[in-house]
Write a structure and sequence with these properties.
Layout lengths: L35 E7 L8 E12 L4 E8 L9 E9 L16 H8 L9 H7 L11 E11 L13 E7 L5 E6 L7 E7 L9 H19 L1 H7 L5 H24 L7
Helix pairs in contact: 3-5
Keywords: Membrane, Transmembrane, Transmembrane helix
InterPro entries: GID4/10-like
Protein name: Glucose-induced degradation protein 4 homolog
């Protein structure tokens, strides 16, 4: 999430190979495309205590390359007329593609250890990370997933909006309850701005791929009935009128489902 610039601030070894591809994937089920999270980010400074409401949605995920991406929406940003949306890209700490050491974005190894150590779940990994960055760790079945999220650009506002996305997030995802905690790092912003999110898919719009498959089947059925409805009418001309009414209504239903799934549902894609 974009933040204000603060003036003057400065387990075990590898094991358990998968038979098909030689590795075991972490339990990322709650990190699937379309998954939504909601919560807050504390953006307090020495002068003011402040928290912004935040929504996050995962838009793409490539586990083989330790990559995911998504959008982050800040809802009550002062001096902003609309919610501020940013696009971010993430690195999954899988000890294969990425380690706990960032090596960029002005983060030193000491910065990495200091921020990762804010997560209690990182404690058992600390000694091995200090030794080799965690390269010899097997994180495939660890109940927490560590990530870095870096906002790349503003989606709906200009770069002159008075906010900055120069920093990045150290993120910890709980596989048991789907919660996310994070800490924002930027040498020019207030330190340790905390991000707290909970899984928020219940009751929200948006669909995972399985839901899209179901929606696609509905659309196909509706298109079929709409195209060949007169054949169904001839076939069922001796049945009660209600059946014919339902068939005629399929034209409207088809248009409704087509508009809802294609035009209204958020676009999901694999990056």
């Amino acid at each position: 999430m974009p933040v204000r610039v603060v003036e003057g601030s400065a387990p075990s070894q590898r094991s358990g190979q998968d038979a098909s591809n030689g590795r075991v994937l972490p339990p990322y089920s709650l990190l699937s495309v379309g998954r939504a999270f909601a919560g807050t980010q504390n953006v307090s400074s020495l002068q003011k205590d402040e928290a912004w409401r935040v929504n996050v949605r995962i838009q793409g995920c490539d586990l083989d390359n330790g990559y995911l991406c998504g959008t982050m929406e800040a809802l009550n940003v002062p001096l902003a007329d609309t919610p501020v949306v940013t696009f971010w890209e993430g690195e999954l700490i899988d000890a294969k593609n990425y380690t706990f050491y960032t090596g960029k974005w002005e983060a030193t190894p000491d910065d990495d250890i200091r921020h990762w150590s804010k997560f209690p779940s990182f404690g058992p990994l600390l000694s091995q990370v200090e030794a080799d960055g965690g390269k010899s760790l097997d994180l495939s079945n660890y109940p927490f997933v560590f990530m870095r999220w870096k906002e790349q650009y503003f989606v709906n506002v200009g770069i002159d909006c008075g906010l900055t996305i120069a920093g990045f997030y150290y993120v910890c995802f709980s596989c048991s309850d789907g919660s996310i905690n994070g800490f924002y790092y930027d040498p020019n912003s207030s330190p340790f701005q905390k991000l707290e999110l909970k899984s928020a898919n219940e009751g929200l719009s948006g669909f995972t791929f399985s839901s899209y498959h179901a929606g696609f089947c509905i659309i196909v059925c509706m298109l079929t009935v709409a195209r060949f409805g007169h054949y169904f009418q001839n076939f069922f001309r001796k049945v009660p009128k209600v059946v014919l009414i339902c068939i005629r209504f399929s034209h409207f239903s088809m248009r409704f489902f087509f508009f809802f799934f294609i035009r209204l549902a958020p676009v999901k894609f694999l990056c």
